[in-house]
């Protein structure tokens, strides 16, 4: 029975490459055509594959519906939280998780710093979208027309001398963030607070959330905080792997 299930499941990656006929499926599985046909019929009955008019098979709509339903029921906060706690235990600084919703970037989770001097933030509060590192990552992943339209309608308050001054500068920074795959806020919102952030990606590679480590410069310098970037990125990759189902992550690498 387990061999039958294994063979049936092996058909799905094949059809993900494009439609295939019975002979191609049988060859890939290394079985007789009658066995391949029996497996395909079972998958067809469950809507996981579809037989086209040219007698070739492709992935069925039911498979996509199941995938969409599973994605909608995933709670990124629940998946990410143990990783955020572990990162906080390793570095001691404030760790945030944020998402982009309805033209706002919101914190959806936070693990407090163990140091007495901390930054102020709270879950559910929108971030300063033009300067926050998590916002830069989330907006950098938007399609270019949407990214440009949003940038041009934002206000650009000058919180500090390092704040992003206008749309042109913001779009340039987003392009850099998109290319390098991480972001910083080095005194852009508050002179005394620095932040490094990395993206959490779904199965399709799109950014679904962003996580960050923030600390006052009286606790660590900007350079010291930037040295944590590899650890932050590994944590984000571990969350991405677990969220997308690519890897059975059991813990964040040190």
In short:
The chain has 10 helices and 7 strands. By secondary structure, the chain is an alpha+beta fold.
For the largest beta-sheet, the strand count, sense and barrel status come to: 5 strands, antiparallel
Q: What is the N-to-C succession of helices and strands? A: HHHEEHHEEHHHEEEHH
Question: Helical percent range?
Answer: 40-55%
- What is the global morphology? elongated
Structural class: alpha+beta
Characterization of this structure:
The protein is α+β, with helices and mostly antiparallel strands. The protein is built from ten helices and seven strands. The protein has helices at residues 2-16, 22-29, 33-45, 61-73, 76-91, 133-140, 144-153, 167-180, 222-226, 229-244; strands at residues 49-51, 57-59, 94-101, 104-111, 183-186, 193-201, 207-216. The strands form two sheets. It has a five-stranded antiparallel β-sheet with strand order 4-3-7-6-5, with helices on both faces. Strands 1-2 form a two-stranded antiparallel sheet. Strand 5 (183-186) and strand 6 form a beta hairpin. Helix 1 crosses helix 3 (33-45) and helix 6 crosses helix 8. The longest helix has 16 residues, at 76-91. The chain starts with a helix and ends in a 10-residue tail after the last helix. Residues 249-254 have low confidence and may be disordered.
């Amino acid at each position: 029975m387990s061999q039958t299930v294994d063979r049936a499941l092996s058909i799905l990656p094949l059809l993900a490459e494009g439609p295939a006929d019975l002979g191609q499926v049988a060859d890939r599985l290394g079985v007789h055509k009658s066995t391949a046909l029996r497996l395909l019929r079972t998958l067809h009955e469950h809507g996981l594959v579809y037989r086209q008019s040219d007698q070739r098979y492709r992935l069925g709509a039911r498979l996509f519906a199941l995938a969409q339903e599973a994605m909608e029921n995933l709670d990124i906060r629940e998946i990410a939280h143990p990783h955020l706690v572990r990162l906080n235990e390793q570095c001691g600084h404030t760790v945030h998780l944020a998402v982009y919703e309805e033209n706002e970037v919101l914190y959806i989770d936070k693990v407090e710093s163990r140091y007495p001097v901390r930054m102020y933030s709270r879950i559910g509060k929108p971030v300063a979208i033009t300067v926050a590192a998590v916002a830069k990552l989330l907006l950098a992943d938007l399609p270019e027309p949407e990214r440009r339209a949003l940038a041009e309608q934002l206000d650009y308050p000058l919180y500090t001398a390092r704040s992003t001054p206008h749309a042109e500068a913001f779009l340039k920074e987003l392009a850099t963030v998109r290319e390098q795959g991480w972001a910083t806020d080095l005194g852009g919102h508050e002179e005394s607070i620095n932040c490094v952030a990395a993206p959490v990606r779904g199965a399709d590679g799109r950014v679904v959330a962003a996580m960050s480590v923030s600390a006052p410069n009286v606790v660590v310098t900007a350079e010291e905080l930037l040295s944590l970037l590899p650890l932050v990125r590994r944590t984000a990759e571990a969350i991405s792997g677990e969220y997308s189902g690519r890897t059975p992550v059991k813990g964040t690498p040190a």
